[in-house]
Amino acid sequence: MIRILVTVSAFLMAALPLKAATEIVEVTSPEGITAWLVQEESIPMVAVQLSFQNGAAQDPLDKLGATNLMVGLLEEGAGALDATAFAEASDEIGARFRFSAGRDTINISASMLTTNLDESVALLRLALTEPSFEQVAFERVREQVNASLRSDETDPQSIAGNAFRAMSFPDHPYGRPVDGTLETMAALTTADMFEAHRLALGRNNVFIGVVGDITPEALGTLLDDLLGDLPDDLSDNISGIEPVLEAGLTAIDFATPQSVIVFSQPGLKRDHPDYLTAFVLNHIMGGRSSTARLNVEVREQRGLTYGISSLLLPYRHSAIYMGQFSSGNETAAEAVAIVQSEWAKMAQNGVTAEELEIAQRYLTGAYPLRFDGNAKIAGILAGLQIAKLPITYIAERNDLVNAVTLEEINRVASELFQPDKLRFVIVGQPVGLPAE
Amino acid sequence: MRKILGLAVLAMAWVPNVWAQQVPVTSYRLENGMDVVVIEDHRAPIVTHMVWYRVGAADEPVGKSGIAHFLEHLMFKGTEAVPDGIFSEVIEANGGEDNAFTSQDYTAYYQQVAADRLPLMMEMEADRMRGLILDDAAMLTERDVVLEERALRTDSDPGSLFSEQRNAAQFLNHPYGTPIIGWPDEVDALTLQDALDFYALFYAPNNAILVVAGDVEPADVFALAKQYYGPVVPSDGIGKRVRPQEPPQRAERRIIFRDPRVATPYVMRTYLAPNRQPGAQAQAAALTLLADVLGGGGITSLLGQRLQIEEEIALASGAFYSGLSYDPDTFGMYVVPTPEVSLEEAETRLDATLEYLLENGVDPDRLARSKATLLADETYAMDSQMGLTRRYGAALTSGLTVEDVQAWPDILQAVTEDDILAAARDLLNIRQSVTGYLKGEEEASQ
Questions:
Q1: How far A435 CA lies from chain B's nearest CA (Å)?
Q2: Of chain A residues 45-84, which have a CB less than 8 A from chain B?
Q3: A397 touches chain B (CB under 8 A)
Q4: Known catalytic residues of B?
Q5: pLDDT single digits (tens) A299-320
Q6: Which residues pair with A77 in a beta bridge?
Q7: In terms of pTM, does the model score above 0.90?
């Protein structure tokens, strides 16, 4: 043991020169579209991440699911190509496009071969600017979403997630399902798709990360080709909301051998000055770490679950702090009591100097591991811009983590952890857990 | 898998191609029989360190199902040098991530960490190759964790339970019919001695493959491997890897799995199929292309075009085949019908599509697109260090060589329409198949 632990401390201060930290450039296209670029020539590919800042939260109440369905249809026919022709064209040139809708954001990830870059960009441009929303494709993809909605009705994870969001954000878009309901889906038309498309994808609401075998000049041209025809006057009409959460349990009866448990309380938005400190704090409480308190108490010491973790979940207009685990119906009550007790303990006593040091060592050491692929780095570059962080952030981030003091983190612990607002939603048939 | 993962999807494909330079791969064997494979990826100062054991669930003693996976969990419990379950703690203190996973054919342990910490990773992994210390208290708690894992992954998911039943129906004699995580009653009865016996027999350098990918030089890795893994004593219990084999299947098998939680029924069929063999991968390559033209790539495949686009009877469809297993496994296909279409009708349309393929052959454009897609996969696979590492580890524990892995993309590109049809004719014998229906309880009463 001693030998190995000595080896550990000898390596502690090694610093990692990250290419992504030192070589991000901001590229502005001739038409004024900006992107962050890391040039990486070792693989003949270009990865592009487009994050549009209008998501499913923009859906009108009677058209829930419109944005999600619209995004799903972008690759189902555009310009002169029907759905099959579009898919065949992307196969032929080896381009991979992934489209997804969240509450705040529509994400489009493209991986393109350098040799076929022009054709790939042209195809993606068609999807973004000239989607056809043909009736036949609309009906087909809507049926796929409906099938997924029906499956969600008997899936304990989905039941728990929907219930806790509806409870946290009453009468607010964040409380509603991204993929709609069977009722709202039935009422949607292709005209709604065109309308959702018009309001979602703009050149003024997109953040762009690019990694790959491309020069800044070529990227400038690419950006104008790809996005130049999109509108530049889109706006976000969502109002802010404080999550409505009070201590207690909401039980939803569902026949399953294992209860699914979601817990949450109000969180911190990404631009809150304490966000990074709270991030370190959460790592100690419920991060994906062997030493995280929840993991030690619920899994390692007692074997009550296979996995438990918590995370800060910032939205653009609100924030929650939530966690999740599953536990047998017989053991769920014990596990819930442990989470409640750990929450109270943290609010009262905070963390120790040793816990802070261990967390800082891990978080700073593991940060470079996130940068192990072009597509992943492209996503990180877009994410930094969404969070309004400076282009130098990657280089500075570990210093910021190391600068968190015990005094500061314990002040944040006493403010962040609110046992009187920690709500549990339990789906299953837990023994000995009275619902309110 | 010891720790729960998010939704990370690992790109499992790679190798050289006509546009890209090859990923440099070098291999070596230590005197104690341990194989070492180094994959260079100098984009970031990161290394992925994996040790793969040529032992998986299919190597378990009868009645001890789940022991391979349970031992995987217990491997984090401690040795004399790294006691009290602090293995992951030390990795994390060095800014690393670690985890492990078990399949029918292998058990693998990995760390991702800054490249300069590689010696420590080797020191710790070599230490627990022969030095595991277990006690009853740790064993009992971890057994509860594994039972919770089974409840989460299998018992809470009707699709997983269905898959478990289909596998059991597919393999009468071969252990591939037993779930990796184990049957619940057998897992519940596993003992400390079961774990120690399995460990002592199979965890040794002459049954292991080290795969290191990242910002490293092969010569340095070999020297380190020699230093850390070289002194580990081999096991004399490693014989030829022989499992009970599947007898010829003479009767088609059909199962119906009903569960009230099923909202979207589907039909799935598997056929016993040959796997990739060292030096002889042509038939597996033909089956790989068959799976792609038949049911890869969503609506552009034959199933997708006919059932989703033309006949509009399916929400989804597909075909799957990996070929990467130590013993022959299966080739599969599925149809998720639209709500108004029955599973019987969906199966009829599936069979009609198979007949159409055998009669009309493969559309040359479709075959060309499949090959273009597979070639593009090779470039994108180079973007995932973890994916490359897994590609080599899984192949080598399935009995293939580094050369087989490197030859595979060219073998795929050389497949012809005749090869595909010949492979399809051999494969598509209904008497060597299992057809399963997954449906809700309501349908059962109709």
A1: 22
A2: 45, 47, 83-84
A3: no
A4: 72
A5: 999 999 999 999 999 999 999 9
A6: A82
A7: yes
